[in-house]
């Protein structure tokens, strides 16, 4: 009798629109995704304002706002190698109104280094699109008497403990690259972590740090103006923006490669319709003259593609860097 009553009441309530069964809830979610976006979107940026990564995020945010019909606001949340920003996005409602402009640390490598990471990047985020790639740069202040990696090795060997290296945060790709390059060259320098690229650049120009190992875009104009000296880039091929600067491999460190990359991600559970809209809008930006010009100015190479391709790329990065981080005993 009770079972029949319950079923009967459910039918009555459903007919009256007062009881939302699974199909109704699913329909509501679909309707919300179809009407998205109906208010401003927040793009969480894991580094301080002013650096090349931030400039790309802002160029993309402006374009997405125009394409989607709602403002996309960049919110800089620097610190902990990107984990502060990533933690915010991981806990945000999966409704498409909070997304992340991610880099290798928070979307992949931090999983390999932090002992108590409050989220698993492979589980906490829904991949949207791989935006671009760029090399890292090994840059020296203009007054440092070295012009090549070989001269850096000789100088650091002759002056143990004297040199320091600015990196854009503890555990960032710049930090890992610094550790690995020092190991490859057989030298020891002091890593100085900052909250993003802009303060690294300021202190390199102010002679507060001797070198920087960082995302490349912010340094290209400074190198061209002679304000800092580029010793090497970390990709397997030279940068088209600094064609005279050798790669680390050119300098004799065989097999060395470290590539910066930039991607969009949303909280896990974000409806596929929203992911697809963001993916399509970002790919359109990358193919547009505005997007190509923005990337060229920042010394970045457009990538684009599908959410599935970004997921596979992140998995390959973890597979690549896992043994490296373990061998170098990098732990946060």
TrEMBL record:
Residues 1-31 form the signal peptide. The lineage of its organism: Bacteria, Pseudomonadati, Pseudomonadota, Alphaproteobacteria, Hyphomicrobiales. It comes from the Bacteria. Keywords: Signal. PANTHER family: BLR1237 PROTEIN, TRICARBOXYLATE-BINDING PROTEIN. InterPro entries: BUG, Bug_dom1. This is Tripartite tricarboxylate transporter substrate binding protein. The keyword Signal applies. Belongs to the UPF0065 (bug) family.
